[in-house]
Write a structure and sequence with these properties.
binds fe (ii) ion; 424 residues; 22 helices; Hypothetical protein af1432; mainly alpha; 2 domains; 2% strand; single chain
Length: 424
């Protein structure tokens, strides 16, 4: 049972989110981390204070969060961008929903604003933070790197392209700082290092912020949104599972702090679905074997990504084992019986209950009778825990009301969030 207080380093949690974004397309793996490294290196070269560099690092790790479909993400990697404002604005809106990230959101919002010989100091009547211009420069340096080729052979070409943009696209002093940095082979080797996560962690110094439960909860809601936003079919699924799982945990006798942890695990359970293309998530007919295999990957990815964060072991177990079955025929680990903890069993039941009961654009949610019957059949073949399914049957009204309330609240927040976005 979970007893330790939560103290999760913000930088690790942000790196975890960045890793999750990498799942969206294998072509862009490590782009966020590379940009964070280059931006912070330029900032350090210019003598920027440590606290500002930390904000810049977080913005680097998340800057393309608005480009959440694979197609959009790949577009951001082209050197000349046609309409970069949309993903920057969307990213800003995602990120600002987490209180601790207001400064980070502001940097992300303007990360494609050209310097335009000084006119880029403001945009839409608002000042553009200096760090946004550093981020812009770092992002453009990163996209000029060809990972398939030896790095030092590329530096002259990259420096030339960046120098060409000095004044028009980039702040000249920042370009100068980059040119000074680029004399060091180590700078370039770091940018393409497979150990870039460790390099970034070593750069963050001692001022790292640690997340307590409330802060972690705020950040995790942001994770849930990123997961759900990709498909209108499951637009509020994570919040429904989070509410159902914590309600069930309370009814099953877990202590309050564990019910709160269960809610966090609920928001995270489908994190690995970022690796599943939207076309598969939304495919109307039967999935092919290959497509089913891609879907089967998702709890595995959830497990590996959450596993990189210190202090989240229990959350990881509760979140990631939601497709394991009591009889060992689940996936991806084929745990069985007592190997599956109460928390993981609750998550499995909460997931199935929410998936059956929630409305989807192509069908309404199942009635009480049909949902319970389906779950009882699953319990009969040991796919779900029978005691927990009986508990759902006894307290259906209460549990379902909590699920509906959570999903309704979340979809209201979405509408607010998307208002005016098409004009952005
Ligand atoms: Fe971008
Ligand atoms: Fe799942
Ligand atoms: Fe799910």
């Amino acid at each position: 049972m979970f007893t330790k207080p939560l103290n999760v380093p913000l930088i690790e949690m942000s790196m975890c989110l960045s890793n999750a974004l990498d799942l969206v397309s294998s072509r862009v793996v490590d782009h966020h981390k590379r940009v964070a490294y280059i931006a912070c290196s330029i900032a350090a070269e210019m003598g920027m204070p440590e606290d500002e560099r930390e904000v810049l690092m977080l913005a680097g790790l998340l800057h393309d969060i608005g480009a959440i479909s694979a197609r959009d993400r790949i577009e951001t990697l082209q050197f000349e961008l046609e309409n970069p404002d949309f993903h920057a604005e969307l990213g800003y809106r995602f990120i600002r929903t987490f209180d601790l990230f207001l400064d980070v959101a502001q940097l992300v919002r303007f990360h494609h604003v050209p310097w335009d010989n000084g006119r880029g100091g403001s945009r839409l009547g608002q000042p553009v933070p200096d760090s946004s211009h550093v981020l812009h420069l770092a992002d453009r340096i990163a996209v000029l790197i060809d990972k398939k080729r030896e790095i030092l052979c590329q530096t002259d070409r990259i420096k030339k392209a960046i120098r060409c943009g000095s004044g028009s696209k980039f702040v000249p002093e920042y370009v100068d700082a980059f040119i000074r940095l680029s004399e060091k082979e180590s700078f370039w080797f770091d940018t393409v290092s497979p150990a870039i996560s460790d390099i970034l962690k070593a750069m963050t110094g001692t001022s790292s912020i640690v997340l307590t439960y409330d802060l972690l909860h705020g950040m995790i809601k942001l994770f849930g949104r990123i997961i759900d936003f990709r498909s209108r079919f499951t637009a509020t699924h994570s919040s429904g599972v989070a509410a159902t799982a914590s309600a069930l945990a309370r009814m099953a006798g877990m202590k309050r702090s564990d019910c709160d942890v269960m809610r966090i695990a609920g928001y995270l359970h489908d994190l690995g679905k970022l690796a599943v293309p939207a076309e598969i998530l939304e495919k109307p007919g039967r999935l092919s074997v290959a497509e089913t295999n891609i879907v089967k990957n998702h709890p595995y990815h959830t497990y590996r990504i959450i596993g990189t964060v210190r202090g989240l072991d229990t959350i990881n177990q509760w979140a990631s084992l939601h497709h394991e079955c009591i009889d060992g025929r689940g996936y991806p680990f084929h745990h069985c019986g007592d190997e599956i903890s109460l928390g993981s069993r609750i998550m499995a039941v909460a997931d199935v209950f929410t998936a059956l009961s929630e409305d989807r654009p192509y069908r309404p949610g199942m009635s009480r009778h049909d949902a319970l019957q389906t779950m009882q059949t699953m319990a009969g073949r040991s796919a779900l825990d029978g005691d927990l399914v009986s508990l759902v049957g006894r307290r259906y009204g209460e549990i379902n009301a909590m699920r509906v309330a959570s999903q309704t609240e979340e979809s209201g927040e979405y509408e607010e969030f998307g208002a005016g976005l098409s004009q952005a």
